[in-house]
Design brief:
Glycerate kinase, domain 2, 2 domains, alpha/beta, 37% helix
């Protein structure tokens, strides 16, 4: 029996590689003769560069930048030949802030712009920007400000590049740009398909989990609408309804507006970079995938959905393991795995689930294989 193990990380608990190792233990416990192909994945969010590092060598560049609340930190990006790989979460990510500091009403992508600026100054002509895990809802005006764009209010005063101020933009100027951005090939890797605004947009879907309250979310929504209006007026671009424009608090839209970037599905990018199709052609009997939380957002383009779609093309059955599952029937109906189980279904506490995730994943996989064997007999 030959099995591909292709999970995302269990956020806050296990890296994708650690999930692979735990799944392998469960498989070997069931049958020590099983051949395991471990293929850790990511969807373009935080941790993606760690996964890419498993497949080819990348050099690290360290830079002092501003974090989401304008504090100076040391961040980094990766390089390979003429390409710079930048994770926005390394400069503007939610994980950089304490819980009490998290509120996307007041945060910025300025540090992400500083990473981009450093890469341009070092001569990189290809920049791949991964935009998951943001602490922000500023539509990328922070990033743009770091590159020389200026944003003004009705009093012709420059605004602070944070989410709260989107609603006050009345003018966008590119006269002070520090670089010729048209010389750079920008690819933006995102893990969601949300539009910029509306019920499925950046503010209404994600701002609450980034610390904003109901009133602030309404103001952010109005700000994103105004941002779209000003981008049409001053940059002559219509970006609000492009899939992924609402990613990372609207940084997807900002990248389209200010960088002339091309938006690419995170999981598709990772399949290509890690040569996933090659392994699917090797007489595979089963694929096991998973992530920390499996729910309806999984169906928007996360690792689990991407793997299940690949498996369907190659007619390979799939098992899914997760930390927690919501919308289980919806996931089953859409992805059609032969098994879907989570740690939290074992009636353990959240703390216990996080602390002993390796053990629980191993046990779930062992039981899934036993049940599959029983069903086939």
């Amino acid at each position: 029996m030959k099995v591909i193990i292709a999970p995302d990380k269990f956020k806050g608990s296990l890296s994708a590689q650690e999930v692979c190792n735990a799944v392998e233990k469960g498989l070997k416990k069931f049958d020590s003769s099983i051949t395991c192909i471990k293929h850790p994945l990511a969807d373009g969010g935080e941790g993606t560069l760690t996964i890419l590092q498993n497949y080819f060598k990348l050099k690290t560049v360290s830079v002092k930048v501003k974090n989401p609340i304008f504090e100076t930190i040391v961040s980094s990006y990766k390089t390979s030949k003429d390409t710079a790989f930048i994770e926005m979460s390394n400069a503007s990510g939610l994980q950089l802030l304490k819980k009490e500091q998290q509120n996307c009403f007041y945060t910025t992508t300025f540090g992400t712009g500083e990473l981009i600026a450093d890469a341009i100054e070092k001569g990189f002509k290809n920049i791949v920007l991964f935009i998951g895990g943001s602490a922000t809802n500023d539509a990328g005006i922070g990033m743009a400000t770091a590159l020389g764009y200026k944003f003004f209010n009705s009093s012709n005063l420059k605004i602070k590049p944070i989410g709260k101020e989107l609603i006050n933009i009345t003018k966008i100027s590119s006269k002070s740009l520090k670089y010729n951005l048209s010389d750079i090939n920008f690819k933006v890797i995102c893990d969601v398909k949300n539009p910029l605004y509306g019920k499925n947009g950046a503010a209404y879907v994600y701002a609450k989990q980034k610390g904003a309250n109901k009133k602030e979310i309404e103001i952010l929504e109005e700000g994103l609408l105004n941002f779209d209006t000003q981008v049409k007026k001053y940059l002559n671009k219509n970006i609000a309804n492009i899939e992924g424009s609402g990613a990372a608090g609207g940084l997807g839209a900002g990248a389209l507006s200010f960088l002339n970037a091309k938006l690419i599905s995170g999981i598709d990018f990772m399949f290509e970079q890690t040569n996933f199709n090659k392994y699917l052609k090797q007489n595979i009997d089963l694929i096991i995938t998973g992530e920390g939380s499996v729910d309806k957002q999984t169906l928007e383009g996360k690792v689990v959905k991407g793997v299940c779609e690949k498996a369907k093309v190659f007619n390979i059955p799939v098992c899914i393991v997760a930390g927690i599952i919501k919308d289980k029937q919806q996931v089953m109906d859409n992805l059609k795995p032969i098994a879907l189980n989570s740690i939290m279904e074992l009636n353990v506490s959240t703390d216990e689930a996080m602390e002993n995730a390796k053990y629980f994943v191993e046990e779930i996989i062992y039981k899934q294989l036993k049940n599959i064997k029983k069903a086939n007999n």
